[in-house]
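Field reference: sequence -> structure
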Amino acid sequence: MSKKVIADVFLEVANAIESGEFGKKVRIGLTTLGSEHGVENLVNGAHLANSSLFDIVLIGPKVETDLEVVEVNEEKEMHCKMEELLDSGYIDACVTMHYNFPIGVSTVGRVVTPGKGKEMILATTTGTSATNRIEAMVRNAIYGIATAKSIGIKSPKVGILNVDGARQVEKCLKELKDNGYDLEFAESVRADGGSVMRGNDLLVGAPDVMVTDTLSGNIFMKVFSSYTTGGDYEANGFGYGPGVGENYDRKVLILSRASGSPVVANALRYAYDVVKGNVSDIAKKEFVDAKKAKFDDIIASVTKKEVKVQTEEVAMPEKQIVTRQISGVDIMDLEDAVKELWKNGIYAESGMGCTGPIVLVNEDKGDLAVETLIKAGYTAK
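Structure field:
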């Protein structure tokens, strides 16, 4: 018996002692219709994942296997059966494809980064956490933290990918942290550091949890999964992950229709991890803690922010040499921030630095400009 098998057995015994659930073995479902690579690809993935830690239940057409099969022959029927088995408690989680989550639920992916072979959580990869982009990404951060904790990362470090809205998301998360929410920021591997991440940080896995909008996360998930195969066969990583929400109990994990057997196997193991780690309970607790830290007020300030309407022409002050760079202003607010400085008699220009949008001012006006922008709510710096 290998050391790994022995370790797995002892882990299962320890978990049983802790939970008091002797004799109850975790069951993970896998639906087997819908893959671009056929039923056999999914069944092979199940065989790869087969272990003493959990049982696998296939939901789909009859196949030659020693695994349990709940026989269905149509995709619609398959998902109905999956939900029935989940809601009855017969299976604890299920890995499937093309599942429609309610608004407020998004999937949290798990990849192995190519730079240093480090695992990293991508929050999020499918679904819609909220209809407002900034709120969605803040929620994604909490979903990612909850998922990371469920797989054993006690104090996950969070980075925010440098996409539209990143600086506003950073500001919201910093407010949560200042109000008492337990959140640890990651540092970029680049020399200028910071918690707003760049492509380099994606490749090396600088944070434990990389926060992004779902559409970008979906693209990154596909690239990380299939960059070695040409794109039509996803061979790396753990899949698009469990659907996580503030009050969502079903443990449904998503695969792409292009996912190959290795990813299927890892997705089943990922499902076991989030079941044993109680990801749903952790997510609920994270939101309780976040709301104590004024989550609702912070989100309201974003979603109910009045559109600023210029009622008067703002005169541009006399031009000056601008060498002081002020970062932290979101791209969507950049021009308004410049005009805010003009209104206060400070000449400013907008620009794009290597870490994102910047406001340029004269060196002598730098500190005053920063204070003015903070007061107007354009930057947290």
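Note: The longest helix spans residues 133-150.
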